[in-house]
């Protein structure tokens, strides 16, 4: 059974589990702790967007203006990477960015926890990206075009050599399968390491306050960077399967 350790700051769910230690409710909380936080964050984001957009005004209020700037910035970022045709991917990529960013920030809220410090959560996000990319490739390229893409689009002598397309096909399959692992581990490791350092600094007491403050500022920057990197890599994967026409 999972227990609260020095490497992890106590949070509401873990404290509640400790309160009911030895019960089925405690075991449930400890088992699904990261999933609980993932659902809470998703609901908070959905509620914030709903409240900010349910009564749209020509002259926006502060929160509507903030959401418009945020969504506009994400749209510009996606278009700058994928081109204007990539705008149809903004809903997925924008949601991915905001979700990862808010989850990263949750480790800085007292008595809360960032679920992305758990590999199962980041792996689930990476698998969502993997499925979305493969579905998009199959939808846009068709069955034969998809196989041609996996074989690295062999042409001329390369296509007639048989061996090379088969080798490239195998290498491409391996690369596609490895991407969710590397994508998820990159995010999980950075946030887990950040949480570990913050936890260690809090146990230093008053002597660790200057370092804790500096680390908190660094964690804020890390939250932005990790969300951008995760979303940017998803865009790159999409670009590799949707920009063949532009490349020619």
Q: What is the number of helical segments per DSSP (H or I, 4+ residues)?
A: 10
Mean pLDDT: 84
Number of domains: 1
The parts where pLDDT drops under 50 for at least 5 residues are 1-6
Which structural class should the secondary elements be placed in? mainly alpha
Largest sheet: none
Give the proportion of residues in helices: over 70%
Distance between the termini: 56 Å
Output the helix-strand order. Answer: HHHHHHHHHH
Percent of residues in beta strands: under 5%
| Molecular shape | globular
Structural Rg: 22 Å
Number of strands: 0
Describe it:
This protein is mainly α and 248 residues long. It has one domain. Helices cover 76% and strands 0% of the residues. The radius of gyration is 22 Å and the shape is globular. The chain starts with 11 loop residues before the first helix and ends with a helix. The N terminus is likely disordered.
Give a quick precis of the structure.
The chain has 248 residues and is mainly alpha-helical. The protein has helices at residues 12-19, 24-31, 33-53, 62-82, 90-105, 119-150, 157-160, 163-202, 209-242, 244-247.
How is the topology of this model organized?
Blueprint: H1 12-19, H2 24-31, H3 33-53, H4 62-82, H5 90-105, H6 119-150, H7 157-160, H8 163-202, H9 209-242, H10 244-247
Helix pairs in contact: 1-2, 3-5, 5-9, 6-8, 6-9, 8-9
